[in-house]
Amino acid sequence: LNTDVGSPPVAAESSAPEPPAWLLPAITRFPRLGSEGAQRSTTETFDAHVATWGALSAWATPQSPESVTELVAEIAAAELTGRGGGHFPAARKWLAVLAAGPGGVVVANGAEGEPLSAKDAALLQTRPHLVLDGLQLAALATGAENAYIWLHAGRHAIVERRAAGLPGPSIELRTGPEHYLSGESSAVMQALSGGPALPAFRRVPGTVSGVQGRPTLLHNVETLARIAVIARGFGASCTQPRGGIPSSLVTVITGEGRTVTEVRPAASLSEVVTTHVPGVRNQAVLLGGYGGSWVPWATIASIAANEQSARAVGLSIGAGILAPLSDTSCGVSETARIVDYLADSSARQCGPCLFGLRYVADLINSLAAGNLSRSDRRNLTRYLSEISGRGGCHHPDGAIRLVNSMLTTFDDDVDSHLRKGRCRHGSPRPSIPVPGS
Ligand SMILES: Cc1cc2nc3c(=O)[nH]c(=O)nc-3n(C[C@H](O)[C@H](O)[C@H](O)COP(=O)(O)O)c2cc1C
Ligand code: SF4
Q1: What is the pLDDT of residue 295?
Q2: Which of 105, 249, 279, 282 has its CA 20 to 30 A from that of 326?
Q3: Cα 4 to Cα 22: distance, rounded to the nearest angstrom
Q4: Residues facing residue 217 across a β-bridge
Q5: Which ligand 2 atom is at minimum distance from the Cα of 199?
Q6: Buried b (16+ CB within 10 A) or exposed e, 7-43
């Protein structure tokens, strides 16, 4: 069992077998980027999954409208929010799809386009059937005709389920390109409709008109796994009694690579970081990944590992990425490399993203290099506000959030870069892993 930050799990009241204490069976380690050389974890087979989590019949066939309503009420009571990074309330998404009627599509999003994140890979590697349970349940509950899992492996698990003759549409595995944007919901829906895996402009939400114009319930794989746990009558995470705020899968960036672990909602984020990166003096943490925010170390200590706690101080835990920055690293240079990558990742479909984001990235690189003029500084402020909220899929918003948080979190260093061309850190080695840099 995962023995990470938190007190012993509370057993759920149920006549079904007692669930494991955690969604993730063990702490899983990945290299700094990609999955080559990643630690191989044991995959729970279908038979082992049923033995561990209980038989399917009681929960996987919500035949009556009342049982579907009851399930949605349980998801709402657990305050389950989407773990793809946006934290939209899952129950509200289900209600929108149910209102649109049957004949739709359900999708498990395992793209994990954010290079720092590895939680979805860890979950799919170790407990694919819990994700597929959630997907199958979503299909049955909404009367969907098609069920897809987007990207990543899992073929063997799907074959096992076919052999078990489970109800509902059979699950199809679809893969897309390895790209930062290939997990964005409109890109997934466009690809599953036969188009390119690129963000698409939508006037109507995907819950009403998604894959091939049909109502589409698209969830991150962690969200679906948690729904599969809720449906069995346990709490939203197996670590909590019914109705409690769920635990979270997080990816901590360490000196050696990325560690995926599961943390209780009450754990402090600084405690989570120091458990996995001990003995380092940190000045800040990049919270939520490339499109997240730099948060000063003193603030991190006051945030607990749940979205509600982060929102209370105007932040988000996003897809659960925690990338600490030591006292010896330069937050300005780190931001410059990340924004460069985000600008290069644009799908080049809208002006604010294609031109505005590239311009912002160039200005931040000038700041890091110590040659940003006073008028450039004014242009930066103007551009940050002009491209905010623009762009078809709001890709630039993540980069703007990151830059704005850099300007405040590292304000002294920004000032030094402006006045002296460099800061107290000199030319430190890059710390946060970024593809191609
Ligand atoms: C630029 C961008 C990239 C995204 N990439 C992913 C991704 O790789 N995986 C994912 O699950 N969600 C990703 N999302 C969020 C999805 O658009 C979508 O909100 C999510 O998958 C819905 O599932 P949830 O409600 O369970 O979180 C991305 C969003 C944006 C704006
Ligand atoms: S904001 Fe960028 S990535 Fe998103 S649709 Fe527009 S060009 Fe494409």
Answers
A1: 98
A2: 249
A3: 10
A4: 106
A5: 5
A6: eebeebeeeeeebbbbbbbbbbbbeeeeeeebeebeb
Nearest ligand to the CA of 221 is: 1
Could you give the CA distance from residue 388 to residue 107 in angstroms, rounded to a whole number? 29
112 CA to centre of ligand 1 in angstroms: 8
**Residue 372: predicted pLDDT:** 93
Print burial letters for 204-240: b (CB count within 10 Å at least 16), e (below 16).
ebbbbbbbeebbbbbbbbbbbbbbbbbbbbbbbbbbb
Per-residue pLDDT at 19: 61
* Token pair of 380 as six digits: 């930066």
Q: Which residue type occupies 149?
A: I
What spacing in Å lies between the alpha carbon of 200 and ligand 2's midpoint?
A: 8
| Per-residue pLDDT tens over the stretch 279-315 | 899 999 999 999 999 999 999 999 999 999 999 999 9
User: Which residue ranges in the chain fall short of pLDDT 70?
Assistant: 1-21, 37, 55-63, 151-155, 235-244
**pTM summary value:** 0.91
Q: What is the CA radius of gyration of the chain?
A: 22
Protein residue whose Cα sits closest to atom 5 of ligand 2: 392
pLDDT of residue 3: 34
